[in-house]
């Protein structure tokens, strides 16, 4: 005798069939996950197989820093790059960037910094002779010309004064005597009853008194002459000449006309940045910046360099963590005001691709309207400045690179770019 609470045979069969369906669905999902994992392992295996066998800790040999230049980058493992820059007044000959190859050799050629011959542009006008110097030049001017580039005529003015005194026996009676001095000494000479007066360079005979030499204001006279402005920034008239001045944060170059930015970050005595901050030299000043890793829910980051944060391994079941950026890098640059555009400001690329697709996007930031993103090749995206920017200003942009495999996210990489725009066009 069966109790009325026991399920019928049909109910039991239905329950067993539902359990079979659930098991089949779980089995299909598990097999799909295994197939996806197998494909990724095969991709990784092929990538490793193409690399030549070498010791795990092998590195490329260290590269020399060029004389009168700088070397950026200290990591010597395969896939990493080292960049080279030359000091002002020198030009780079060789490879600007060299990459450590899998064969533990460097790409490109070792660069050198060669002194720029400023005399090639023939800066000395009106027959002047140019002498090349380190980060500058000097001019030896022809007679009748003066100035840093021989652009200013040397004014020598004469005035004739009738002499009423007699000339003895018709012989040439000559005498020399100074006339009244103003800002500069004037000299006169008398030849056969005629007096000639001249002024020192930088002075001219006064229009009211022919015996007085008055100063020439070169800053007004040659403000926009054929040879250009006398000074890059400001011209200060002096007795018998002029001098150029530069704004704070600049020094006058050896040619006396141009302005050179002072690198306050080269010496701790010239900036007040703390140990936790980076000193970024700008045109006419400097900025102290503090790089902090992002704070994202369920994801943590470790600072692997002063300007780079990398995500720690994610828990297996954390979708929020797996979708967070794999790395966040920070890049700072300084530019002059009204920089010509369009211009490529930054390039972002993948050293090795695991997936089948790379996407580049501009996420946002201050001054986003001045930028756009374009692709230069399959593995490289470029941040393009589309319009000139009037300084002073600070622009921010976030450039994202996303790697996909059959539309499935494999990794996200973000670079935060900060651009400091100078108040000046130099």
UniProtKB/TrEMBL annotation:
<keyword id="KW-0245">EGF-like domain</keyword>
<dbReference type="Pfam" id="PF12662">
    <property type="entry name" value="cEGF"/>
</dbReference>
<comment type="similarity">
    <text>Belongs to the fibulin family.</text>
</comment>
<dbReference type="InterPro" id="IPR000152">
    <property type="entry name" value="EGF-type_Asp/Asn_hydroxyl_site"/>
</dbReference>
<dbReference type="Pfam" id="PF22914">
    <property type="entry name" value="Fibulin_C"/>
</dbReference>
<dbReference type="GO" id="GO:0005112">
    <property type="term" value="F:Notch binding"/>
</dbReference>
<feature type="disulfide bond">
    <location>
        <begin position="86"/>
        <end position="113"/>
    </location>
</feature>
<keyword id="KW-0964">Secreted</keyword>
<dbReference type="GO" id="GO:0005509">
    <property type="term" value="F:calcium ion binding"/>
</dbReference>
<keyword id="KW-1015">Disulfide bond</keyword>
<dbReference type="InterPro" id="IPR018097">
    <property type="entry name" value="EGF_Ca-bd_CS"/>
</dbReference>
<dbReference type="InterPro" id="IPR026823">
    <property type="entry name" value="cEGF"/>
</dbReference>
<feature type="domain" description="EGF-like">
    <location>
        <begin position="115"/>
        <end position="151"/>
    </location>
</feature>
<dbReference type="InterPro" id="IPR035976">
    <property type="entry name" value="Sushi/SCR/CCP_sf"/>
</dbReference>
<keyword id="KW-0106">Calcium</keyword>
<keyword id="KW-0677">Repeat</keyword>
<dbReference type="InterPro" id="IPR055088">
    <property type="entry name" value="Fibulin_C"/>
</dbReference>
<keyword id="KW-0768">Sushi</keyword>
<keyword id="KW-0272">Extracellular matrix</keyword>
<dbReference type="Pfam" id="PF00008">
    <property type="entry name" value="EGF"/>
</dbReference>
<keyword id="KW-0325">Glycoprotein</keyword>
<keyword id="KW-0732">Signal</keyword>
<dbReference type="InterPro" id="IPR001881">
    <property type="entry name" value="EGF-like_Ca-bd_dom"/>
</dbReference>
<dbReference type="Pfam" id="PF00084">
    <property type="entry name" value="Sushi"/>
</dbReference>
<dbReference type="InterPro" id="IPR000742">
    <property type="entry name" value="EGF"/>
</dbReference>
<feature type="domain" description="Sushi">
    <location>
        <begin position="58"/>
        <end position="115"/>
    </location>
</feature>
<feature type="disulfide bond">
    <location>
        <begin position="141"/>
        <end position="150"/>
    </location>
</feature>
<dbReference type="InterPro" id="IPR000436">
    <property type="entry name" value="Sushi_SCR_CCP_dom"/>
</dbReference>
<protein>
    <recommendedName>
        <fullName>Fibulin 7</fullName>
    </recommendedName>
</protein>
<dbReference type="GO" id="GO:0007219">
    <property type="term" value="P:Notch signaling pathway"/>
</dbReference>
């Amino acid at each position: 005798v069966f109790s009325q609470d026991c399920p019928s045979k049909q109910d039991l069969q239905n329950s067993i069939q539902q359990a079979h369906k659930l098991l089949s669905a779980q089995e299909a999902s598990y097999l799909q996950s295994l197939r996806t994992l197998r494909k990724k392992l095969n991709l990784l295996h092929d990538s490793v197989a193409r690399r030549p066998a070498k010791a795990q800790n092998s590195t490329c040999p260290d590269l020399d820093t060029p004389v009168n230049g700088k070397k950026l980058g200290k990591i010597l493992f395969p896939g990493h790059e080292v960049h080279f820059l030359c000091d002002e007044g020198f030009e780079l000959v060789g490879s600007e960037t060299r990459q450590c190859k899998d064969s533990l050799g460097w790409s490109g050629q070792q660069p050198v910094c060669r002194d720029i011959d400023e005399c090639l542009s023939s800066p000395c006008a009106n027959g002047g002779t140019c002498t090349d110097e380190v980060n500058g030049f000097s001019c030896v001017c022809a007679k009748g010309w003066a100035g840093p580039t021989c652009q200013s005529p040397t004014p020598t003015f004469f005035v004739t004064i009738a002499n009423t005194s007699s000339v003895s026996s018709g012989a040439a009676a000559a005498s020399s005597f100074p006339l009244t001095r103003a800002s500069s000494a004037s000299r006169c000479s008398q030849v056969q009853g005629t007096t000639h007066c001249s002024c020192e360079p930088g002075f001219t005979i006064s229009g009211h008194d022919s015996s007085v030499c008055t100063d020439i204001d070169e800053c007004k006279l040659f403000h926009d002459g054929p040879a250009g402005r006398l000074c890059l920034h400001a011209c200060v008239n002096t007795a018998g000449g002029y001098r150029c001045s530069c704004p704070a944060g600049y020094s006058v170059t050896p040619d006396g006309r141009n302005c050179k930015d002072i690198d306050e970050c080269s010496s701790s005595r010239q900036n007040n940045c703390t140990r936790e901050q980076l000193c970024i030299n700008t045109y006419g000043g400097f900025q102290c910046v503090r790089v902090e890793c992002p704070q994202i829910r369920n994801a943590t980051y470790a600072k692997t360099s002063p300007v780079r944060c990398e995500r720690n391994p994610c828990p297996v079941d954390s979708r929020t963590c797996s979708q967070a950026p794999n790395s966040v890098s920070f890049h700072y640059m300084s530019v002059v005001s009204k920089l010509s555009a369009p211009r490529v400001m930054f390039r972002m690329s993948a050293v090795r691709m695991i997936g089948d697709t790379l996407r580049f996007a501009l996420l946002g930031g201050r001054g986003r309207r001045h930028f756009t993103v374009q692709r230069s090749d399959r593995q490289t995206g470029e941040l393009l400045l589309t319009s000139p920017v009037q300084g002073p200003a600070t622009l921010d942009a976030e450039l994202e690179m996303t790697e996909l495999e059959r539309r499935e996210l494999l990794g996200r990489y973000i670079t935060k770019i900060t651009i400091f725009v100078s108040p000046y066009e130099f």
